[in-house]
Amino acid sequence: MLVNTFIHIPGIGPVTEKKIWQSNVLTWKDYNCFSCLNLSVSKIEDIKRFAKESTQHLENNHPGFFEAQLPSNQHFRLFPEFRHSCAYLDIETTGLETSSQITTIALYNGKDIKYFVQGKNLGAFLDEIKNYKILITYNGRSFDIPFIEEYFNVKLPHAQIDLRYILQHLGFKGGLKKCEKALGMDREDLDGVDGYFAILLWNEYQLNNNDKALETLLAYNIEDVINLETLMIKSYNLNIQNTPFFNTHTIEEPPKPKNPFKADLKTIQRLKHKYY
After folding, report:
1. How is the chain split into domains, by residue range?
2. Residue 273 phi/psi, 5° resolution?
3. Which residues contact 29 (CB under 8 A, 6 or more apart)?
4. What is the pLDDT, as a whole number, of residue 100?
């Protein structure tokens, strides 16, 4: 979809982009047809210049150029071309205050699941994240990424696809779990576990040395990033549904990977009974 994109060009909005497609100018490669567009000479020159520049940035694997040019709710267009260098990311913390700490980080690249735990291997996250160009999150632009940068005192240079804005544009509002349910996704044993409960699980692990609580927390954190892949693909397909590219560009949802951790129902029920 990225090579069919023209709305990243200044002055080109969704209506004009649709007219460009209707004029049978479908990709940046249709260079010889740009002059036939019913647009001003200056606008056609802009399209030619940006088409050439965009091709170079794509060939050089520079997603940040497109992230900066596209509205946040259109960042789904980056996904297919840069899928090989994307990582789904989610963190859990001890709270929302500036003094809060990261407890676990889950990372999924579409093949491998990685997880990082405070007191064990949390620092290894900084080396692992260097392997990717794009971070895919839900509300990560406002929470996860700034929290990580503050916690580790680093600046993450990655481009970002924040599914919160993409799903809102499609009419799916609320938190991650609400969007999942609206799209028919089921968390089974982890249903009802949320960010606040993740704090309770960490406290239970720390105070009582309950490994089952940590395993449940990791199961929850990893479920987030596994489901981000499904949400990414679902939202991408929904967004291209009314474009000329739906029949050719639709992405098949891959089988859901096995979560390496399992929620402990006894721990969940005991904590719910104690705190709810």
Report:
1. 2-60, 80-275
2. -65, -35
3. 3
4. 94
- Strands of the 113-117 sheet, one edge to the other: 113-117, 102-108, 86-93, 134-137, 159-162
* Average pLDDT score over residue span 16-22: 95
φ/ψ of residue 9, rounded to 5: -85, 125
Distance CA 66, CA 58 (A): 9
Hey, what are 117's tokens? 């735990």
pTM of the model: 0.96
Q: Which of 7-16, 35-44, 132-141 has the lowest mean pLDDT?
A: 35-44
* pLDDT tens string 85-103: 999 999 999 998 878 999 9
CA separation for the pair 36, 242 (Å, rounded): 24
Question: Which residue do the tokens 């395993």 mark?
Answer: 215
- Give tens-digit pLDDT for 182-227: 999 999 999 989 999 999 999 999 999 999 999 999 999 999 999 9
Given the structure tokens 């676990």, which residue do they identify?
104
Tokens coding 29 = 């490669």
Q: Which two tokens stand for residue 59?
A: 């060939």
List residues bridging with 89 in a β-sheet: 107
pLDDT tens digits along 110-143:
999 999 999 999 999 999 999 999 999 999 999 9
Task: Report the CATH number of the 80-275 domain.
Answer: 3.30.420.10
Q: Report the length, in residues, of the chain.
A: 276
Report residue 134: phi and psi, to 5°: -130, 135
Q: For strands 113-117 and 134-137, give the pairing.
A: unpaired
Q: How far is CA 228 from the centre of its chain?
A: 6
- Give the burial string for 111-147 (b: 16+ CB within 10 Å, else e): eebbbbbbeeebeebeebbeebbbbbbbebbebbbeb
233: nearest Cα among 90, 113, 130, 86: 86
